[in-house]
Amino acid sequence: MKRIIGEIILSNEPGEIMRRWREIFGITQLEIADKMGISPSVISDYEGGRRHSPGATFIKKFVTGMVDIDTAHGSRILRQFSSIMRTTSDAILDLYEFPSPFSLAEVARAIDGEFLACEAYSEKKILGYTVVDSIKAILSMSGADFYQLMGSTAERALIFTKTSTGRSPMVAVRVTPLKPAAIVLHGVTRLDRIAVALAKAEDIPLILSKKASVDELVKSLHLLRS
C-alpha cells in the first residue's frame, strides 16, 4: 500500500496512475467511489486530469479502498502480487529500491546514459531499478511474470541488457497495463526507430546506456546506493 501511494504521489500524472491501479485491481469507478463515500465523478475527474492532483489523504483513502474491496473479494489481486514477489526469475540480474528517490537525470549520468525519448521528464523521481537480461526474459518469462520486474513499485527504471535494437522491450511495455517510470537499453548495436516511437507513444522516457559491459552498468548503479 505504501508503495502504491508513493507511486501515485510521485507521478507527474497521478490520475493516470490511479486509473491503472484501479484497473489492475478490477474495480470500477462506482465501486471505489462508493467505498470512499464520494461521487464517481470525483474519481473520473481525477483520472481524466480534470481536477488538480489529489492530496495524500485522498490517495491513501483511495488505495486503502482498493485493498479493502479486493480483500472482500477473496484477495485475488493481493495474492497474485504476493506470489509474484516470492518468485524471482533468473532473467532479473539486479533489483533495488532506493531509500530516497533519484531523478532520471542522476541515473542517466551514473550509467553514461543518453535520452532517446521524453527527455522533458529528466527530473522525474524514481524509487528503484530492475536490470533485466532481455534474452532470458523473452525465453522464460510469461506475460504475468512481467510484474516481477516492477519489484514493489512501478516508479522505477527497467534496464534491459543484451537488446540489440530495443524493439522487444518496448513492445512488452506497450502491451502491459502497469508501466515503468523509464526504460533503459544496454547493448544496442542498431537502434530500432520503432522502439523510440513506442516510447514517445507511451510517454515513457527512453535512455540508452553506453557502459561498455553489463558488469560496469551494474557497478555504476550500485554507486547510487551509497
TrEMBL record:
Q: What domain of life is recorded for the organism?
A: Archaea
What PROSITE patterns does this protein's entry cite? HTH_CROC1
Q: Which residues form the signal peptide?
A: none
- InterPro entries linked: Cro/C1-type_HTH, Lambda_DNA-bd_dom_sf, Tscrpt_reg_HTH_MJ1545_prd
Record's SUPFAM superfamilies?
lambda repressor-like DNA-binding domains
Annotated GO molecular function terms are: DNA binding
- Pfam short name (any one): HTH_3
Query: Where does the HTH cro/C1-type domain start and stop, copy by copy?
Result: 18-72
Instruction: Please identify the protein, giving its name as recorded.
Output: Transcriptional regulator
Q: Which organism is it from?
A: Methanosuratincola subterraneus
